[in-house]
């Protein structure tokens, strides 16, 4: 009897240790997030002390000693512009892909879905390499130059001489890079629409497109918006391909003025300048401050996106159980 | 009588028009949607084509094993970069896999409460963090602390990208193991950790391996965090406290040089990297389709037989 009790006790302690270890490992991610926010805040403190909130609204960027002046606004604008254009191109394409694949017979849908997902496996730096030496040339000669010749004199959007290393090229590459994410999540969400809804639409005599309009889009609207915002998060944080293609102007010159002008994003300015910045000067705190702003934007975007997507997938479970 | 027939004719033609119009819209949507898929696959095809076409011209034994030659000479190779990538993947896995797996166990085995849901949510959000910020973080806690560039900083940054992916895939594959397996273990009087490690993990092995390999292929191509943690070098690995090279870093540096020979070497390095990464992806896919689904299908079939 005592032996049995002893055994039981031992078992419980080892299981407690196991549970504790698992819980600690689960908590790791929270610790890292908190520590990261804290580190970025404390290490970027000198720049907030020097510039105050004007760090966010100023447009200069000068790292020359004794004339240091840093403002992150141009890079915020650069990030938002490239991401917005990438969304405009990438999201409709992704939803089209999700529609095709969610609806195609598995024999065609599965391999095509896999091919699209392979786009996500290609490293960012290879997108950059391809963009720099292949895509840029074709894109400049076949799309940018004709657009410039046709509209350049009248519409400011198309002014500026197309060189290939500009906002539009970077945005199109970003669009290609967000397609796998957005289309994969959209596909899951479209699959989560209950079969009865689709059948009801077909029963009313709907064609396939009308079925999408009647049954799938209204039901999955929230989730699709969430999927697009997830893509936005990807685009905002993407570094290498953008760094290689956006032209890397700094300060006032980085404010987007036309589609064919160079610019700079928050992540690309960090990638370009971080190694050269000395930790003693205010240059490095400025770059860490850029990182902090980027982190806050990324957190907001991703929290919103995940809330929308998980809400959608929860509805699905409820609907099936009922 | 006549007018009724006329009306009928009229309605019939209206109906036909209506149907024809709707079918036309349906067909054109079908074409548009299909062309979306084609538009997305063209870049993939072009990237693969260009990398293989240009990269094969650069590949040779010397290119794969030697250190880079003088800048712009077109001599030398990417030996240190290949070595560095392998080292950094190994170290990052050493740091990231145990935490990822344990965290996945937590989410799956103890995941039915508000705290675990909170962790799961943050795990998902963390997975999407810009990798360059993880690089800055690793720089601040390790490089700045030590005072010099360190291989550990790069490995730590990459492990931060890795572990949330592993946690989620581990959780998903553990959840696919039927509860009856765990109950059988409990009925035998086994401890929970023995059940988890010996029964549940071994049943979910292929799913977990898939997740780990996919996370390896993801970090293999990461560049941004490595720029600010291991910097890049043209020498073979010498110690943990000096800068090290990696394939993505080498590609980036080569692409910035204004020489055709450097560009060619860049394509060669890209070919090596893409073979590693697509190799892992395709291998996993093959494994996944042939083995994993087979395993789980057989489990499900067994369960059905039992319940019958």
Protein model, in words:
The complex is a heterodimer of chains A (322) and B (308). Chain A is mainly α and 322 residues long. Chain A folds into 2 domains: 2-43; 54-321, Orthogonal Bundle (MetI-like fold), CATH 1.10.3720. Chain A is 76% helix and 1% strand. Chain A has 12 helices and 2 strands; from the N terminus they run H-H-H-E-E-H-H-H-H-H-H-H-H-H. Chain A is globular, with a radius of gyration of 25 Å. Chain A starts with a helix and ends with a helix. The relative contact order of chain A is 0.15. With 308 residues, chain B is mainly alpha-helical. The mean pLDDT of chain B is 88. The chains are: A mainly alpha (322), B mainly alpha (308). Chains A and B meet through helix 1, helix 4, helix 5, helix 6 and helix 7 of A and helix 1, helix 3, helix 4, helix 5 and helix 6 of B.
Number of individual domains of chain A: 2
Helical residue percent band of chain A: over 70%
Radius of gyration of chain B: 27 Å
Could you give the count of β-strands of chain B? 0
Beta-strand residue fraction of chain B: under 5%
CATH superfamily of chain B: MetI-like
The strand line-up of the biggest sheet of chain A is 1-2
What is the approximate shape of chain B?
flat
Q: What's the structural blueprint in terms of helices and strands?
A:
The complex is a heterodimer of chains A (322) and B (308).
Chain A: H1 2-43, H2 45-51, H3 54-57, E1 61-62, E2 69-70, H4 73-103, H5 106-121, H6 124-151, H7 167-191, H8 195-203, H9 208-237, H10 240-245, H11 266-273, H12 283-321
Antiparallel strand pairs in A: 1-2
Helix pairs in contact in A: 1-12, 2-12, 4-5, 4-7, 4-9, 5-7, 6-7, 7-9, 8-9, 9-12, 11-12
Chain B: H1 2-58, H2 61-65, H3 79-109, H4 114-127, H5 131-146, H6 151-175, H7 179-187, H8 192-203, H9 205-220, H10 224-227, H11 247-256, H12 260-307
